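Checklist before submission:
- one chain only
- standard amino acids only
- sequence pasted in full

Submission:
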Amino acid sequence: MMPQPCATALRYSAFIDGGPKAGIFNHAAREITPFDLLDRTRNLVAYAGGKPVGTMRIVLPDARQSAREGTRFNLPMEQSLHFREVPEGARIAEVGRLAIHVDHRGSDVIRLLYKSVHRIMSEHDIRYYAGSSLTGASRIEEAISYYRTLLSHGFASKDIIAEPRSCSDTDDQHEPIFRASSR
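Returned file contents:
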């Protein structure tokens, strides 16, 4: 299912033109991913005064596709994270691609988008969701620069820590980098 053009335009505007990536990332950054095109993906759009002011994506799990792919949930995040803390048999959705128009940041838009996410989860008997963010960096200096930019634009908390971590499949020395949120 193709996302509404206003959703992708808002993503581009929020992330590239005036968002935290302005001036530091490639302006040709992709704002549509293959997961946007799946029937189980919902791209939500919030409107104010007839104009799109916020968007968020929810990707629902697909048991049949998971079995074919050899994954637990067949979600985008499974390409880079492990879902060890999600109980066996639980259904989980991935929530991400949140973009809020600069004039509506700090408003009720994000709460309304999450309210819609929770309604969709309830309709599909999903109790957990994971949030995603494109914050990977190959060097610690890049990560620190990125987080400082996020912080300066009001997109991040001062509690964010940028430090190197091991990402091996067998690394049990660190806390899991994913925690499921239940509603």
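Reviewer check: The CA atoms of residues 17 and 27 lie 8 Å apart.
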